[in-house]
């Protein structure tokens, strides 16, 4: 039987479907991290011109702002992946404080070895992340509200429990204990890498040294290596693996994702656990390096992490974003914060800048999203 | 021609509501069965039963002659019954390739370096879209930039690629313009030629008639009969579906109103 639909201009099926030429440049514009990378370039040019003579770009200056950026970047990676999967975690900052206490109290007051305390903190934080995610997934409530609740619960628990166990809110002495026990895990978080290399640079007079010959910058802090490692692993995972596709799908449209067999709930819970993991890495690096944990650590960090992710091109509504973008967001953050310090400007202006930057980034992201999804 | 899927006297109740009563349909491979009916006729319940979302309260289902009972949509999918719902299960922000393989991504390499085989995925997605006459220049283009008809075709192409034997389409042309609808119907006709059994749900007789081989009319959970293309014409189908009496009534009411208006001033 002749089918009317098959004979009726069947061959030129899509000739009336207009295909727009997309230039190379425009395709690059569709990459989420573009805004943050160009922003970072601008920031570097600006401070290169204005703060060039202040020591900001001397080795110790570089170490200074790269450490700040790396710390923020660590939690920005977690926040970014979770946002791409369509959820928020406002408890990251409180989790940093809580994880710090989970390391310090067992070490100092219960005589646990440092490595066991660190593992305990990771296990504890990730269980809380699991509970957080499980509640969000099961109740269908906005993660904004659920994690806001955890912001207060965890901060309260941090102060309350440290008071209960130790009668104080700042617990010191962790570093001494770690050195005393010659703990094998502590250097993974509080150590410095490539010390020999920096000593060699100092011996040759290529970098500044103290009077006794030890270089001003004695090595790369572990937090920077953690940050770089996680960036590479997470960006690869996001773009190149099956799980990465599931993250995009869960955030883009969780119902559609479930209908084709993506375990969206599991993906979201795992990412809540991952943000808790990132917060704990942050806390462990801080506690081991400074030797102390304080109940007010990580205050407002959740917002900074989300801001870094948004500046990095991640959509607040989920389904779109980039880990590399979030890292450049964190870099902008760190460079501006320290640059303002080096220039001697009142740090209040940093907040003004931050707010302005956030607003611009959100407007820009919104524009990009419309461009990406505009129907022909 | 073998019978691919057959429903015998299927009934489904939700509490006291009779959603389906004594429905029997069968579809052969290489055949398009159109399910026609107004809102509330039981079309959705019937396809959800076929897709494994609901289990029938009475009656039996047979797939290729064997009696079956689906526990879940996944179960139905695994046995080759693919349903394309109206929401299409596509994510607009994701690329054509990523959508095409969403949830069933091809991988290569060994853990922990196992990765999404994007070369293979891009190639397949592009090939499949080319085959149905939709030129995807860049398989990384977001689905959000495609037209409604193209999206519908993508969802159908995906279902076929993943081994559908029975393809259930829920109102595929409902939200589309004329040309877009034709694009989709042309693709449905092609799927039939490839030997798929297609169940097309619609309330648009003009869309159903050209592609359909047989037509089952549903009304308030009951079947009003199944007709071959040679047994019925488009008009009587339309009349039966809309309830000829009601259309006639409307006609009369309108005429009376008009006469009234003319008489009034």
What does the secondary structure layout of this molecule look like, with pairings?
The complex is a heterodimer of chains A (376) and B (265).
Chain A: H1 4-7, H2 24-29, H3 34-50, H4 59-84, H5 92-109, H6 114-139, H7 143-166, E1 170-171, H8 174-181, H9 186-190, E2 192-193, H10 195-203, E3 220-221, H11 222-240, H12 242-252, H13 254-259, H14 264-290, E4 293-294, H15 301-311, H16 323-343, H17 348-373
Antiparallel strand pairs in A: 1-4, 2-3
Chain B: E1 3-14, E2 17-28, E3 31-37, H1 43-50, E4 58-63, E5 66-68, H2 73-78, E6 81-84, H3 96-100, E7 107-108, E8 115-116, H4 118-131, H5 148-161, E9 166-170, H6 178-193, E10 197-202, H7 205-211, E11 214-219, E12 222-228, H8 234-242, H9 244-263
Parallel strand pairs in B: 3-10, 3-11, 6-9, 9-10
Antiparallel strand pairs in B: 1-2, 1-4, 4-5, 7-8, 11-12
Helix pairs in contact in B: 5-6, 8-9
Characterization of the model:
The complex is a heterodimer of chains A (376) and B (265). Chain A is globular and about 65 Å long. Chain A has a two-stranded antiparallel sheet. A two-stranded antiparallel sheet of chain A has the order 2-3. Helices cover 70% and strands 2% of the residues of chain A. Chain A is built from 17 helices and four strands. Chain A has a domain at 78-188 and 218-296. Chain A has 376 residues and is mainly alpha-helical. In chain A, α3 (34-50) runs parallel beside α16 (323-343) and α6 (114-139) runs antiparallel to α7 (143-166). Chain B has 265 residues and is α/β, with parallel strands linked by helices. Chain B has a domain at 3-89 and 164-232: P-loop containing nucleotide triphosphate hydrolases (Rossmann fold), CATH 3.40.50. Helices cover 37% and strands 27% of the residues of chain B. Chain B contains nine helices and twelve strands. Chain B has a six-stranded mixed sheet, with helices on both faces. Chain B has a four-stranded antiparallel sheet with strand order 2-1-4-5, with helices on one face. In chain B, α5 (148-161) packs parallel to α6 and α8 crosses α9. The longest helix of chain B is centred in the C-terminal third of the chain and has 20 residues, at 244-263. The mean pLDDT of chain B is 85. Chains A and B meet through α1, α12, α13 and α17 of A and α2, β8 and α6 of B.
